Amino acid sequence: MLPCLALISLLPHGSFVPMKWDEATLRTKLTGFWIEHDATVPREKRISTHGVIEWQMFQQLEEGDPPNRAYQIDNDNESQAFVGVLLMNTETRPMWLDFQFSDAGRQVVQLGIIEFDDDQLRWVRYGRVPLKAYNEVKGKHPDRPTAFVDEKKQPLGYTMVKWKKK
Fold it and tell me: Would you say the pTM of this structure is higher than 0.70?
């Protein structure tokens, strides 16, 4: 224990040490309902505690659903919903969390990276790539986001807050 404390004390103040996750632990932590907020809007300036986009992650609602089923509900866009599956890779840094779904009849994958700050999830997602192109490079697509902040150190992506439905 003492060597770990000594090593941590050598880190610059405010340094974030990413936790090593295994897939089962990460799946358990992600399972449930989440509200999405734009990461560029500070918590105290958000219009509502409820986001306009809700996620249900790793939710099997019907018999036969895959265990990595996910639902994205966009309440600001005429309650548009996407049903798909989550694809994750806990071996990469940052970890990947991608969303595969059907868009206008085409299978696509939205590329993403994640990190946790306590119980708050940061998820940076970018674009949509065809599933075939995604599979050909095993997820190592050049459009994958790589950082949680831009060159001016401003936050990117979304802050995800766990939500317990009543």
Answer: yes
